[in-house]
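User: Could you write out the 3D structure of this protein bound to inosinic acid? I've included everything you need below.
Assistant: Certainly. Input first, then the structure.
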Amino acid sequence: MTGHRKFEGGKLVVASHNPGKVREIRALLEEFGVEPVSAADLDLPEPIEDGDSFIANAEIKALAAARSSGLVSLSDDSGYALDRLNGDPGIFSARWAGPNKDFSVAMEKVEQALQKAGAETAEDRKASFICALTLAWPDGHTESFEGRIDGHSVWPPRGDKGFGYDPVFVPQGSDITFAEMDPEKKHSISHRARAFKQLIDACFTSQ
Ligand code: IMP
């Protein structure tokens, strides 16, 4: 494919301090022989995410990591969006979990907001996970991609695999939540997998 800058191999910084995401990104990159190092391992500072879209925030994170490490960096900005709540929590998905990053609190807030809005049926409770990925080079070049998966939000939360909002999300065509699903299955259909497919096709050469 032309028009996209390729990753030439070597070290790749995963610009995230979220262990759940770093784990998933490592698994997705494994087959490309990439040796990922995390921003937390390198002790890189966390930039302020003040963009107004998933891609804007992904670019802020990847560029900050690329500039401070001097290495190509990959970031993920993602979140959970409810149609009935006009896309909330959306880019504020991490913030809804509060300072203790407690996602049982965040899931409860979503549920309370849905109930307040009178959402009852699966149609009323339509939800999506969205993932923006940015690959950034130290010279400021970026390549960004977005993937999503649609489904609906259930209550109470079910399952203990995965992270974040996984226990309340049932993807279309399934009757179990992301947190009840085997991780390999989630990785094959998720918003992150879909964004990754685009990134890999555009910027990576398979080994
Ligand atoms: P940020 O991209 O680090 O600002 O935060 C995104 C937040 O969205 C995460 O902390 C998770 O709570 C949530 N999120 C993103 N992807 C997933 C996922 O695959 N499963 C569950 N929650 C997710």
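The radius of gyration is 17 Å.
User: Perfect, thank you.
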